[in-house]
Description:
The protein is mainly α.
Amino acid sequence: MLDRDTEVLKTYIGLMRAHGYFEKLVKKDANHSDMNVTEFAVLELLYNRGPQPIQQIGNRILIASSSTTYVVDKLCNKGYVERKPDLNDRRVTFAEITAEGIALMDKIYPEHRKHLLEVFAEFTEEEVLEMKRLLQKLTRYE
Length: 142
């Protein structure tokens, strides 16, 4: 008979191990440039999703809002990101990837993408979709 409590705890441990694995993978890919993992995550977000309100970046990549400003500052200083005011709402400022940031990501993102796809290579399309659905269900209370 299944001991649900034990299985829940084992599942939690499995999720934490998976998180650690992905963190190492991203760290390795980020280290090929002059960025840390958080900087890489912000640049990857801007590269793939376009300009983002700075106030929302932290929620998208799971960092504290106070850290978001610091990370965006560092990326601006490196020339990879620039701030753009919202023309309709002066309280909002967007972070936008620069041409230099795009050039960097054009160079390093394909390898990162390849690494991620390799991790999921042995999963069927149905398994990937089910994993995505279950993870969304798990995080619905954020």
